[in-house]
Write a structure and sequence with these properties.
Blueprint lengths: L11 H19 L4 H10 L5 H17 L4 H14 L1
Helix pairs in contact: 1-2
Length: 85
């Protein structure tokens, strides 16, 4: 689901939407409306939300890119950092 999305700058609304769908799935699966129970079940089964996975992948990509000595990588990293501010 997240393949290649770490190269994209921002899409927070899409992540929130996908996390809502996943939370609703857990709510229906365990027949509860208590979000504490849903989050506990997600943690217990090792389920990681897409926003967390995406952040890990972005950090990993940026770490790899920083090892390259390339002008295009430098420009894209500096542009991305200014977009996030």
């Amino acid at each position: 689901m997240l393949y290649g999305l770490e190269a994209r700058s921002r899409f927070k609304s899409q992540l929130i939407s996908s996390e809502f769908v996943i939370s609703r799935l857990f709510i229906k699966l365990y027949r509860t409306s208590n979000m504490n129970i849903v989050k506990e079940c997600q943690t217990y089964f090792g389920f990681v939300m897409p926003g967390v996975l995406w952040k890990r992948r972005v950090d990993k990509l940026e770490k790899k890119m920083r090892t390259f000595d390339n002008i295009f990588v430098t420009i894209s990293l500096s542009r991305k950092l200014t977009l996030l501010v």
